[in-house]
């Protein structure tokens, strides 16, 4: 009987340790760029690994949209772009066409609202990792600037 109670405690401890070591945060949001006519293609969210270990982000989601797999090493940034390279849509706009190809970035497939929203980052099990709420009243509405999360 004592061993059956120990297993859930050990599993909870391992999960807590895993979450404590894998600290990924939303650090910046570009929700309303003004560089292109089809601005949604150039939207992006920046993530940062504040933890001491690498994080395998396979299966992670932003606002219930899976993004391409990536491994985020300690103190590394990753941009999750709405459209990393131009797809089959009518325009030629993409993250790389505006911001360049030398940035650690993956495709994200989401769309950010210009009227404000809460961006939710979830791990492969659907656990909330981080979130950030924005509104146009705090800035970055079609002025070429981003919102930086500082807390």
What does this molecule look like?
This protein is α+β, with helices and mostly antiparallel strands and 151 residues long. The protein is built from two helices and eleven strands. It has helices at residues 2-21, 95-99, and strands at residues 24-30, 44-49, 55-56, 61-62, 65-66, 71-72, 77-81, 105-107, 117-122, 128-134, 147-148. The strands form three sheets. The protein has a five-stranded mixed sheet with strand order 8-7-2-1-11, with no helix packed on it. A four-stranded antiparallel sheet has the order 5-4-9-10, with no helix packed on it. The chain has a two-stranded antiparallel sheet with strand order 3-6. The longest helix has 20 residues, at 2-21. It is globular. Residues 6-21 have low confidence and may be disordered.
Shape descriptor reads globular
Record field, number of beta strands = 11
Order of helices and strands: HEEEEEEEHEEEE
Ends distance? 45 Å
Strand content: 25-35%
Helix proportion: 10-25%
Question: Unreliable runs, pLDDT <50, ≥5 residues?
Answer: 6-21
Overall pLDDT: 82
The largest β sheet comes out as: 5 strands, mixed
Report strand order across the widest sheet: 8-7-2-1-11
Contiguous helical run count: 2
């Amino acid at each position: 009987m004592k061993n059956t109670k120990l297993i859930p405690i050990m599993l909870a401890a391992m999960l807590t340790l895993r979450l404590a070591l894998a600290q990924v945060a939303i650090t910046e949001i570009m929700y309303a760029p003004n560089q292109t006519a089809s601005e949604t293609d150039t939207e992006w969210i920046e993530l940062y690994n504040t933890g001491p270990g690498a994080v395998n982000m396979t299966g992670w989601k932003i606002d219930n949209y899976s993004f391409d797999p990536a491994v985020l090493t300690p103190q590394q940034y990753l941009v999750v772009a709405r459209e990393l390279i131009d797809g089959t849509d009518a325009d030629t706009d993409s993250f790389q066409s505006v911001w360049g190809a030398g940035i650690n970035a993956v495709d994200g497939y989401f769309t950010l609202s210009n009227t404000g929203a809460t961006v939710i980052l979830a791990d492969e099990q659907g656990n909330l990792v981080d979130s950030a709420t924005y509104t146009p009243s705090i800035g970055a509405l079609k002025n070429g600037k981003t919102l930086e999360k500082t807390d």
